[in-house]
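Entry for the shared binder. Reason: the reviewer on the internal report wants the predicted structure included alongside the sequence.
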Amino acid sequence: MHREPYDPSHGRGQQGSLSQLADGRWRARYRENGRQGRRPQATFPTKDQAAAWLRDKTMEAERVRQGDRGPVIRHQHRATTCNEGAARYLATLDISDLSKATVERRLRPFTNVFGHRPMQTLETQELEAWRLTITPGWRAAVFQDTRRMLEAWKRWQWIPTNPTDGVRNRAAKAAEVTPIPWDTLLAIEEEIDLRYLIAPILGGGTGLRPEEYLALEWRDVDLSGRVLYVSRVCSGGRLIELGADGSKTHRQRRRVPLRAAVVERLQDWPRRLDTRLVLPARKGGYLHATEFREEIWRPALTCAGVPYQRPYDMRHTYASESIAAGVNLFDLSRFMGTSLKQIDRTYGHLVADSHQRNRELLDTYDQARAAEA
């Protein structure tokens, strides 16, 4: 018999019935699309459960007749898996490739566990329990992106509600940053592979992220003007040119003033003829961050006899030294390519060390104003 696709808005509505089976269970069933439609049915232990199911189905049909297409859309996606939903969600994001790769990486813990499941089967309790299995330092970001994806599914009416609503997503307390002391950078400079001799002072003296100084080209360095331009990043083996709006934010494409210590090393640094990069791989081309960290950086710290710290911690060196020297947080946020809020949250505790410098600046200003009077 030919049966039309499910469309509760068609026909004269749902007509349902309850009947008790010989074994005592209760069966509820109704017709879709009038007499020619399918006749879904379900069996329940009690009459109340059967009646509740039938009531939900008939009310759903009534909502569709009043113009709500949600039940129809959800019916069409009743077998859509979380993997399929995640792929569709990523395809709709109007963000840079680098940012999209970050979101995809954060969604991976979710799809690894729930990817095979139909997305309409997700329950709040299991998502709340799953959240606790994520590494604490990554937990808040992973769950936040998962919540955003489920909210999109809800907005598209693929699921009736967002099962993460009401689940508290408390961020882990950020560990206090540990800058690498300048003297330690000088000690590392003494031990590092000679082909990367400028790396410690370049990183600690400019505050560039690893993906930024590994993509740095000589055309980005203006030694006469003592300024460095951040124009591209190398992340995950991919080179990304920063547009006017930047790859992460509009702040990432920026100019960074160069202190004398950095200028001196760059002036004396021999340039390779086979590459435009300041810090190329041994055989040319872009140096992968993992290779730099494990094969160049870590051995240098071991030889220098200093505790291990990440290459990224050179960025904290730049921030702490800038604050101690009296650079205000607004300018520092621009030089580091981040927000003032992030600078204050990460380095605000270091500002107390610059109070004396701030007092001296204000005293000097007051004295100059008094002299003019």
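Summary line for the report: The first helix runs from residue 47 to 65.
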